[in-house]
Amino acid sequence: DAKTTQPPSMDCAEGRAANLPCNHSTISGNEYVYWYRQIHSQGPQYIIHGLKNNETNEMASLIITEDRKSSTLILPHATLRDTAVYYCIVRVVNSGGSNYKLTFGKGTLLTVNP
Amino acid sequence: EAQVTQNPRYLITVTGKKLTVTCSQNMNHEYMSWYRQDPGLGLRQIYYSMNVEVTDKGDVPEGYKVSRKEKRNFPLILESPSPNQTSLYFCASSPRTGSNQPQHFGDGTRLSIL
Fold it and tell me: Does a cis peptide bond (omega within 30 degrees of 0) precede residue B75?
């Protein structure tokens, strides 16, 4: 699976949009981009994933650049409860049934301030 | 409610006393996996299972056993726990069909081996 690079920490004001970048310059054509977050030692929580198109769900939006070498997770209106470590993960997806292991890096600690 | 349930949530025990951490999911997922999380090392996969009676080693399987006799359950067994297995453990599951589907994580089990 391709390696990802994220800033170690970011701050955001409550109510403002939080834009979390991720670089995955070695991504290959059959690799998806996943975003998870972990709130203070709780289980990682799935946020969103995508292949090449931008995606949006009730939690966030995912913007993937046209060359797929980077992406941005957008939390449109951050709240204090969004303070967490956010992980960008790239994983090969195939129909062969191999291990679906997720490789977590160090992630970005997002702190939402009042 | 769709969930992955781990028990116990916390356990303090002594070296050599066999223990089992249970994991159960109610989503009829074929794939299940165990991770451990340690400071500075992130989440590392211990074992995984692609389906009933199909298990395989992850990155750090030493000192652990698993079994998958039923689809919903995937217990993690420490036959002779040692202090270096003190860690935060997470169980995860996902469907196999549509292999890009996200994994769902349990709330974690914090083990302390004295």
Answer: no
Show the low-confidence residues of chain A (pLDDT under 70): 1-2, 94-98
- Nearest-angstrom CA–CA distance, B85 and B60: 11
Those residues of chain B that have pLDDT short of 50 are none
Candidates B56, B59, B108; nearest CB to A42? B108
The tens digit of pLDDT for each residue in A77-93 reads 999 999 999 999 998 77
Backbone angles phi, psi at A38, to 5 degrees: -135, 120
B11 touching chain A per CB within 8 A: no
Rounded Cα gap, residues A53 and A65, in angstroms: 9
For a pLDDT cut of 70, what percent of chain A falls above it?
Answer: 94
Tokens of A102: 């997720």
Provide the 3-class DSSP secondary structure of residue A1. coil
- In angstroms, the CA A7 to CA A5 distance is 7
